[in-house]
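From the methods appendix. Each design record in this collection lists the tokenized structure first, followed by the designed amino acid sequence. Records were kept in a plain field format so they could be parsed without special tools. The example shown here is representative of the layout used throughout.

RECORD:
FOLD TOKENS (459 positions):
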């Protein structure tokens, strides 16, 4: 196992444990906080407002994350972000409105650092041939986080009302997992330095592998300022402006599957005798879809065919998400996202159909994310930190807006927003990929590929 691949594996498993804790908490936060309010009327914390703060701060700090990374490097950024996640999850032991919202802001800062650092670190340990594979491996391992936490919740939430003892057990386990994941990320090693071939004749192949000289370091504040201005310049390029439409859609559907849909299943009393138990099961099926999509379209893509990467995968995601939206529209009532409801959808409420919707949401999300990661890693290889920061900026702005309107509008209106944006986002991705592939095909063969601008790569 080469050093770069080992780094990717350590990164993947560390993220998996940290986000086993966080994604499980996000999936059950609405249900958990509702149960706390039932036991303590003085607590009025709202999960959707908490998540809105997280993604709002996340969006803002994405502009500053490249500056932080330019001074500290991606490994320190990843570790700092992981510590913020630990503090957020641990704060649920002491339910208080101000603490909840303060820690939500803190984890928003941490999210910007960990995800931007992750994007640069993954790119540093990949090349054009391994980027798609590494992105798929990361996504598949990362999304197994949906299994363990939600399976645990499935067996813990045995009563319609979640009592304090059950909550304490959940918080203890999730905090421990976040700490363990942070410890794994602590052992991330420095990315191997890129090599280039010497041009001198008559030297051995071993001597031709010359290490590139380290770039000259500027003063920290100047380095941070340049990183910030580079991010702004990159944002207004045509490719990034178009891709931002895809990023926005991924943010909207992230909000829906991670914070709205599973809670809606748990609030629909016609779903089963104990619908709260289905909240964890829904998260598990979302995870199954995520891992299946990551494995099929990331890890196995190069081994199966060329149609398992790029626009065919994104079109597959479009079709799968359309199936999910239609079944959810038919199966759940409009007021399901807000509180327990006795209403039903347009058909007899079916838990099997609800789990099929969860599976489709996860699989479609993997289709989009694996291809976005792969395209960004190749298209903006020399600007990976600002590129991934801008991806997360657009995604988190959309998520923050979505979590805000999730408190105001019903399920059907939310599905309508997703239906419109899925077509716009898919079209934008396919156009950018087509344009960059055509640009590379038109590049003269006698030009050294190392001299071609990074924006002419292909997915």
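DESIGN:
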């Amino acid at each position: 196992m080469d050093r770069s691949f080992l780094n990717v594996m350590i990164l993947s498993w560390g993220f998996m444990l940290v986000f086993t804790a966080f994604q499980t908490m996000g999936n059950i936060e609405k249900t958990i906080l509702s149960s706390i309010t039932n036991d303590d009327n003085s607590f009025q914390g709202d999960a959707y407002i908490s998540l809105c703060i997280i993604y709002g701060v996340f969006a803002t700090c994405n502009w500053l994350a490249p500056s932080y990374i330019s001074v500290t490097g991606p490994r320190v950024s990843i570790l700092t972000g992981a510590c913020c996640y630990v503090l957020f999850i641990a704060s649920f032991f002491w339910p208080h409105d101000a603490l909840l919202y303060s820690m939500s802001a803190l984890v928003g800062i941490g999210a910007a650092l960990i995800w931007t650092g992750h994007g640069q670190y993954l790119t540093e340990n990949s090349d054009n041939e391994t980027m798609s594979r590494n992105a798929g491996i990361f996504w598949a391992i990362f999304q197994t986080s949906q299994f363990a936490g939600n399976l645990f919740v499935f067996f813990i939430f045995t009563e319609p009302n979640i009592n304090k003892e059950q909550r304490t057990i959940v918080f203890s386990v999730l905090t421990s997992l976040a700490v363990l994941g942070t410890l794994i990320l602590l052992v991330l090693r420095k990315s191997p330095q890129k090599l280039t071939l010497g041009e001198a004749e008559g030297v051995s192949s071993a001597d031709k592998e010359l290490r590139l000289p380290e770039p000259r370091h500027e003063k920290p504040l100047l380095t941070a300022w340049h990183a910030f201005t580079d991010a702004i310049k990159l944002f207004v390029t045509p490719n990034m402006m178009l891709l931002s439409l895809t990023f926005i859609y991924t943010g909207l559907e992230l909000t829906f599957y991670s914070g709205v849909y599973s809670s809606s299943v748990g609030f629909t009393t016609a779903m089963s005798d104990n619908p709260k138990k289905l909240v964890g099961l829904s998260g598990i099926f979302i995870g199954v879809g995520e891992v299946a999509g990551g494995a099929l379209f990331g890890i196995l893509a190069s081994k199966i065919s060329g149609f398992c990467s790029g626009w065919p995968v994104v079109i597959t995601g479009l079709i799968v998400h359309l199936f999910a939206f239609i079944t959810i529209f038919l199966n759940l009532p409009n007021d399901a996202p807000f509180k327990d409801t006795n209403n039903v959808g347009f058909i007899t409420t079916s838990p099997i159909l609800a789990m099929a919707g969860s599976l489709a949401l996860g699989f479609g999300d993997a289709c989009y994310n694996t291809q976005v990661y792969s395209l960004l890693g190749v298209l903006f290889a020399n600007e990976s930190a600002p590129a991934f920061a801008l991806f997360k900026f657009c995604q988190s702005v959309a998520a923050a807006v979505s979590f805000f309107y999730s408190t105001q509008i019903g399920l059907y209106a939310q599905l309508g927003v997703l239906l419109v944006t899925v077509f716009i986002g898919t079209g934008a991705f396919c156009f950018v990929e087509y344009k960059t592939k055509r640009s590379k095909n038109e590049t003269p063969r006698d030009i050294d590929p190392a001299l071609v601008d990074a924006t002419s790569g292909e997915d």
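APPENDIX NOTE: Residues 43 and 271 are 28 Å apart (CA to CA).
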